[in-house]
Design brief:
With about 325 residues, chain A is an alpha+beta fold. Helices cover about 35% and strands about 25% of the residues of chain A. Chain A starts with 11 loop residues before the first strand and ends with a helix. Classes of the chains: A alpha+beta (about 325), B alpha/beta (about 325). Chain A: This is SCO2521 family protein.
Chain lengths: ~325, ~325
């Protein structure tokens, strides 16, 4: 792998974000959020109120020394630390995000202090091209011996919720989603800047970004924002599907859609905290497939249904048929 | 038109601390030393003096600059309580002076655990990042929960039964992760909970002490113990003495780019443990960067690895 030269910025980032509903019956208030996300004594939980309430834990570091997946199945060893943190949005949606900046290393492992002086960086021992490592990360099957950011984020989500004294009575059922992502510097990939989001299955999405410059903080924030909105979209879709809207003429769907109205519908705010250089990526996703278009259509459908129920129109019409 | 918006609570902030070039530890007082009387103290200072002079002369400072060097002295009031500040502090100052040494700062070891609502030991614990033996891929939880930290892979516990069955054939030796040809494996006890609460080990507190001297600890972005001026009257209880006292009003700053400790040989295992611990301690990035930047501006060489900033001399007497 070509070394990061001073002033050139990182060549490659690997990351994963897990997103899920906080297992608690009500929105978590500020003080409890501080306690839940205060994962490191002596460090602040970073919080902001505009344009929505978001709190982020201090960064944690985890040491790794393991093979990195490549598409060519060539053995590449990575040594260093992975950064991770937890994010809570509007006291409701909990995310765990892990990130490793991949850099060139020597031909052997160096003293551990060297890696601690470069937190969040995993150095490649041996040869490994950025594009090849990115592809390997996205293609990685379930955790084996390779870098396991999925396992790390899963454990973080579970630990954060366990320590916080939550009542574990979530207002509705939902699934955790995973966004596995990579960001490669465009000049190394030999491509124009852009992104490719793939819905792999019900819960797994992969995102491959090619960027002019790869800022770890900005890219991770973008991926967390994308994961949050993808989860909202999937979760609202599943709630509508389960509610029986469109098939059950009675008041059932209204009852079943209430959690969506109470807990989800105000959370849509794509791109709110995305750095300017990355804003075009969101714009791209808004054009195709059109995240907001789908969200607006779903929300409108729920609202129309509620309105019809309120004036008592739906049931008689159906019965009249 | 371009507008910007910022929320202060969303930004991390970190205070910088005044820095010397070198923090020179000239002694460490335990109850036994104190019980042996002032002669013992004088003997120790006399023994330390030539090495302190050597350390001053060896302090790396750009040509033409005055080296900023502060001295410090640590009192063990954590594991045993003895005498009072009113009695001990003037004695230390006088005996040091008699040997041609000045004690700039005096610290209490118990403050490395907790004092004035600050818990430096917890700050250090929060940033321990274990050095991963090969094969660590992020899926296992960290093992610091046990209160033990090693510099490698322990002999696996499940192998013991096998070893019995196979007449010792299944036993695997421990291995130091960064060993050369052979291992020097060390497993350090960080704390125990025998007396209800957590009692930190001596090497652990010594590591905290090194980090305080290196200016690397922050509590929510703030300096942990800003040095307090010497009280007009020294108190009769250690708890009433500030955690870190500036005895010499003209002293250079307490924290420094590098530390040097002149210690008796019996401290060697403890300081080996300190090394194992600090090699697995991740500093706050902004603090680390600020230090590196200031060192660069001053033209002072500063090693990346923290343990490279720590120097020792072990002398052969008690």
């Amino acid at each position: 792998m070509r070394p990061d030269r001073p002033g050139e910025g990182p060549a490659l980032l690997l990351g994963e974000v897990r997103t899920g509903l906080l297992q608690h019956s009500v929105e978590l208030p500020g003080a409890a959020t501080e306690k839940m996300l205060g994962l490191r004594h002596g460090e602040r939980v970073r919080s902001s109120q505009r344009p929505n309430v978001r709190a982020q834990s201090p960064d944690l570091l985890t040491g790794v020394d393991c093979p990195l997946a490549t598409t060519s199945h060539r053995a590449v060893r990575g040594v260093g630390t992975v950064l991770s943190h937890a994010v809570l949005t509007e006291g409701r949606v909990l995310q765990a995000s892990a990130l490793a900046r991949i850099a060139a290393g020597g031909d052997r492992r160096r003293p551990w202090g060297h890696y601690l002086a470069h937190p969040g960086t995993v150095e490649v021992i041996g040869r490994g091209e950025a594009a090849e490592l990115a592809a390997g990360h996205l293609a990685a099957a379930e955790p084996g011996t390779g870098l396991d950011l999925g396992g790390l984020t899963e454990r973080l989500l579970t630990e954060v919720q366990r320590e916080a004294g939550l009542d574990r009575r979530a207002p509705f059922r939902s699934r955790r989603t995973r966004l596995r992502w990579t960001a490669v510097r465009a000049d190394l990939a030999g491509e124009e800047p852009g992104g490719r989001l793939t819905v792999e299955d019900d819960t797994l999405r992969t995102l491959r970004l090619t960027l002019e410059s790869v800022d770890p903080v900005e890219v991770a924030a973008f991926c967390e924002d994308l994961a949050l909105h993808d989860w909202l979209l999937s979760t609202l879709g599943r709630l509508i599907e389960r509610s029986g809207l469109g098939s059950d003429p009675g008041p059932g769907p209204v009852q079943r859609l209430r959690p969506a109205v109470n807990h989800l519908m105000h959370l849509w705010m794509p791109g709110a905290r995305v750095a300017r250089p990355l804003a075009p990526l969101w714009e791209g996703l808004e054009t195709r497939p059109g995240f907001t278009r789908q969200w607006t259509a779903s929300v409108q459908r729920v609202r129309d249904h509620l309105a019809l129920q309120a004036v008592g129109l739906t049931a008689p019409t159906v019965r009249g048929d | 038109m371009d507008t910007t918006f910022r929320e202060v609570s969303a930004d991390p902030r970190t205070a910088s601390v005044p820095l010397s070039h070198l923090s020179l530890e000239i002694g460490h007082l335990y109850m036994d030393d104190f019980m042996a009387g002032p002669e013992r103290l004088r003997e120790q200072f006399a023994q330390v003096k030539p090495w302190v002079d050597a350390a001053r002369a060896a302090c790396p400072v750009p040509a033409g600059r005055r080296p900023r060097i502060s001295t410090c002295f640590l009192i063990d009031d954590y594991f045993t309580r003895f005498s009072t500040p009113a009695e001990v502090v003037p004695q230390i100052v006088a005996e040091a002076e008699a040997c041609g040494l000045t004690v700039d700062y005096l610290a209490r070891e118990s403050a490395c655990a907790e004092a004035d609502g600050r818990r430096p030991a917890r700050l250090v614990e929060a940033r321990l990042v274990e050095s991963p033996p090969p094969g660590t891929n992020g899926s296992r939880p960290p093992a610091t929960a046990t209160g033990w930290l090693s510099n490698g892979e322990r002999t696996p516990a499940d192998d013991l039964d096998e070893a019995m069955g196979a007449a010792g054939g299944g036993w695997r030796p421990p291995r130091e992760t960064e060993a050369g040809r052979h291992s020097v494996f060390l497993d350090v006890e960080l704390w125990d909970t025998r007396h209800g609460g957590r009692t930190w080990s001596c090497p652990y507190l010594a590591a905290v002490w090194q980090l305080l001297r290196l200016g690397l600890l922050r509590d929510r972005g703030q300096e942990v113990f800003p040095p307090a001026p010497r009280p007009d009257t020294l108190p009769d209880s250690w708890d009433a003495l500030p955690p870190l006292v500036r005895l010499n009003p003209a002293a250079d700053p307490f924290a420094a780019y590098r530390t040097f400790s002149v210690l008796a040989r019996r401290f060697l295992p403890i300081e080996h443990a300190v090394t194992v611990l600090l090699e697995q301690w991740a500093p706050e990035e902004p603090v680390l960067h600020a230090l590196a930047e200031r060192a660069r501006q001053e033209g002072v060489p500063l090693p990346d690895a923290l343990t490279g900033r720590i120097g020792y001399l072990f002398h052969g007497q008690p």
